[in-house]
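Letters spell out the chain; backbone shape is given numerically. Both lines appear below:
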Amino acid sequence: MNKKDYVDVEEKLPIGKTIPLSLQHLFAMVGATILVPQLTGLPPAMALFCSGIGTLLYIFATKGKIPSFIGSSFAFIGAIILVKDKYSTSVMLSGVIAAGLVYIIVAGIIKLVGVKWIDKALPPVVVGSVVALIGLSLAGTAVEMAGFSLASSVENRPLVILVAIVTLSIAIIGTTFFKGFLSVIPILIAMISGYVLSFIVGIVPEEAIHEIVSAPIFQIPQFTLPKFNRDSINAVVIMAPIAFVTLAEHIGHLYVVNSVVGRDFTKDPGLHRSILGDGLATTFAGLVGGPPNTTYGENIGVMAISKVYSVWVIAGAAILSIIMSFIGPVAALIKNIPSPVIGGVGILLFGIIASSGFRIFVDDKIDFSDKRNLIIVSVIMILGVGKTVLEFNIGAIPVTIDTIALATIVGIMLNLILPKKKKIDL
């Protein structure tokens, strides 16, 4: 570490420090990235491969100036299953490519018209709310994976909760008290400790252990080429519009990174480059057989805790992700990280993201005695925390606007519509 208490975006660290820091990012994102192909029937190893390549494409597109990790997008799960089951995986991939091209086209338009409109559409009161909401919207997932939710059916609940508590405790203790290099890898240490404890108490399923032990040393991810025919038109019509929804999520994530790192990446290297990187990553995934991609909040949480913002560390995680997609036992080990381990660190990581949103309120001195601010924040928060979903049809095409995107869109509309006036005493 440098004398200052953070590692900046452009800084390189020795390889001995970079590898564990990169592993920390890989472990933080892998649970969600692997879950998408598991839910949609796509090869998990391809998700790892596309995540790594997609992150490198993103870094290239953003001139190495934005430390963001690319992983599988949850927004497309329903569309992937619908198109894949009705037609084929190859046809579905044509829709993934179309979604990526939407991002690329939007990036081109933003390059031409500039980003001044962002300041008007997304002032701090909206950005802070959306950033906080990104963390809060993941709270239920973390709590459920940790075994705390009574609504979920969890076997060996006491042991699952024990692992989650130990994992979370180590992450908190490490973040607070570790010194030197250990202070920047508390999440990695916590997840490894939680994994080892999971083996000791016996909550790792036998089939998972068998998969890890019997996996071939070297494997080639299952590549699938896209197919373009008449059915592809339907795939494009169903999947391309979802990209407009996830654009709002992408911008929200970028503002979280802005808040954590202390830079305005919408200006340098520019929002258009960030969106372009996401579009290139998704287009590449569609060309080889992976799921659509997006920037990941889990990795933003890791940066907030470690204060290591180096894009070289992110690139290292991307390279490790690619390598591990070819190593059977390692890919299986990562794939089978126990849920309470992910849930335990998730409670801290997602909470840190939410706190970043509240920090924006403080830094920009948002006045909550202003009725306008109060309404905007209240509506965004409740729509998001309540996991509001808007479903409708455009002709015969089903369209779903999910939680974060819907809350962001409503927040932007309220900001543009509500007059700036009057204060109320609370």
User: Anything to note?
Assistant: The mean pLDDT is 86. Residues 15-115+133-248+259-366 form one domain. The first strand starts at residue 70 and ends at 72.
